[in-house]
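It would be a great kindness if you could assist me with a short task in structural biology. I am sending you one protein, given as its amino acid sequence and as whole-number tokens for its backbone shapes. I would ask you to consider whether the tokens describe a fold that such a sequence might reasonably adopt. The full record is reproduced below for your convenience.
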Amino acid sequence: MRACRLGGLVAAVTTLVPAAALAQAQPPQKPPQADSPSKPPAEHLLGDWAAGPAATGVELSLEYKGEVVGNLSGGHGHGLDYSHLILGEAALDGAKLWNLKGFKLYAAFANVAGNSLSADTLGDDFLAVQDAYVPNVTVGARLAWLYGEQSFAGDRVNVAAGRLPVHRDFARSDFYCRFMSTAICGGPHTLPAQPAFTDLPFATWGARAQVKLGGGLSTTLGAYEVNPKHGGPSGLNWSTGGSTGTLYPVELAFAPGGKSARLPGHYKLGWMYDTSAYPDLYADAAGQPIAVSGRPGRSHRGRPTGYALFDQMLVRHGRGKTAGLVAFGGYVRSDPATFRLAQLSFLGLSDEGLVASRPKDVAGLLVAHTQVSSSLSRTERLQAALGEPFTGGVDGVQRSEWVVEANYAVHVRDGLTLMPDVQWVRWPGAIRGHGDALVLGARADIHF
């Protein structure tokens, strides 16, 4: 394990050092242009190489996200780990390429590698401290999504279908992945922890429709295959073998003032229903505790989950879409009878341009709390009383967990951001016997 961690650290250093050197070797930047409030200009470390293909209708991007994290105290021991995610994307404009007005085709491949500090030293498989780490992905390049999109009625109606992650369109926010904790990056964690709610680099067959209702109101409805195989190791197995049901999400969104709002905000209410069958976490088919009978939990057909999310700019610092002090938060609740994370709540602040001389730097603060299913906790308490091993191989009764994260993302130059980060994890793995962990880390975001 130590060799893996040292190898990860070497990989991180050999990646970040040349990137920083390359940034210094680039010619001076052009004077900054005024950002559009609705769509800031794309940034590329290697210059405007993507402008040529974009003019012909082919938008290309390549992004690297690398993270180094170390546990200074708490958990099961000290350690250091590295992980990364590399994402290549293409968007094809049907109007320019095939004279198909309103049509676009999207594709992306991802590479993920590294080790999990949360698994190695914290004994924590709930709220991992690295969003760039994805378990059980072993191939060099994995299909992340491939789908088509069509707009109608002057862009008031938009439909999409294909190999489509749920999180592309539901419970999204510009602010969640400004943090490294998976408490919210990848979606508030009670959602993506479920196999039905897919996110990068996983996708299944799906379709959704977005409708702008006017007055800042919009709604999104979808239907997605629930398949824990997620297309196999490469994402290219598109068979429905292994499907367990269908996920039906619906979301109502309100953006006061729309794109022209000086202090933009987004308020969302969502609900989703997974038709798959899941076992009860406490009782078997006869109503007896599974810890006593030794039989599997009784089957429940269908799992509901609801959420409420918001973000609101409080102070504006510039013309950019997110330039200012923004408060955000949310609450997610799932079925405690069948899902071990019953609820998640979080609040945070993100300040882009806090320092006037550094308008693209971003400071962030996040507080998140997750509550374990009461059914699971009851089972574990009974297992402890009977001297049985705990469900899932954990080493204590699981109750709740807190994460507090603070960071500051330094915009080094166009296409390169470096972010030191600190996380305090209260009761890692939601087990009171695990000492509180203090995690220091750093992330590099490079858009080539």
